Amino acid sequence: MIQWSIRMGAASQIPKPVAAAIKKCWPDGVVAEFETDESYFHEIHPRLERDLRNIRGAALLWQTEEAENGASWDEDGREDEPPPSEDWQSYHLFFLAPDGKEFHFEDETEGGEEPEDREEEEGTGTTAGEGWIGCAVGICLAAPFAALHLARFSRYEDGSAWLPDVESFLVSDETDERVDSDCEFSQLLLAERNGC
Fold first, then answer.
1. Between these two residues, 185 and 195, which has the higher pLDDT value?
2. From CA 151, how far away is CA 61, in angstroms rounded?
3. Residues 137, 92: contact at Cβ < 8 Å?
């Protein structure tokens, strides 16, 4: 569980609508997991997805996968509750990319295939793919609230993907410091345009 409180200093950093939604959903100040299958979101999801797909000049390329619902059966034929998900999220994320080559780039990722000879090093090179710069739309499952920001999405020939995140910032692999996402994405697209 995450303990939160809104104090004088912290309150100025949290937008008022976000603070109000947090206070409404968790009045005792403890942010905890909740049953997301009871969320208002499930009623609006089909219409929202349709509306996002109908935006002219953009494509809905990815969204959070639906959790597997229902019970499982053990060897004795008894119904068991499904195990709790390790990937519990309090939001549903959509990724939309504008049409046009300006927001599309070639990408590659480190290969992670298991080597045939155990003495060889793991990772057999790189895997080609394609990527997009677009908009991540995070919809809160606890309250009718959305967050939008610039993000990237890539998919690779081996079936893996670089998924967008609800976080609106990037962290450098080399320095572990925050980097300006607008600048990073601009450089990525400029390198693609210039053939670098």
1. 185
2. 12
3. no
